[in-house]
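Q: Sequence in, structure out?
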Amino acid sequence: MTVKYLSPTSLHVWEADRERFFFRYLADRRQYDDQTNAMSVGSSFDAYVKADLHSKLFGDSDPKFKFGALFETQVDTHVRDFALGAGKEVFDAYVHSGSYEVLLRELVQAVEEPEFEFTLRQEICGVPLIGKPDCKYVRKDGTTVVLDWKVNGFCGKRATSPAKYY
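A: Exactly. Output:
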């Protein structure tokens, strides 16, 4: 079997564990990891942010971007109770920090309509790559900005510093 494309996640799995890569991406009966509480926080935060931003920018007419639809699509059933509160806590901290308002201001001033829930595809040296960033917009100066939110350390036992380049 041939891999149709590689994503940042699949490349990370390939580098870390070739056997796991095979069973996750190539085997006839693929094996996926269950979503953990830590994973669910990021997915829940993503749903809160996208639903809120989309509502402020475009109104509530698109059911795909309502919080419930995003949350149910992205968060596995067995971790939803935890993720609902944890994602809201992280979203509230994001708003409180002022970062949300800065982003909203940038999106309102964008020269092209901002995009959420989209796919980027590129072939590099014959290798098909795919990415699913969280948000893309073009600033007034013509700069294209692509965002991919990360929530690291929420479930950790110790305080976590931001990862380099994020």
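The chain is about 45% helix and 10% strand.
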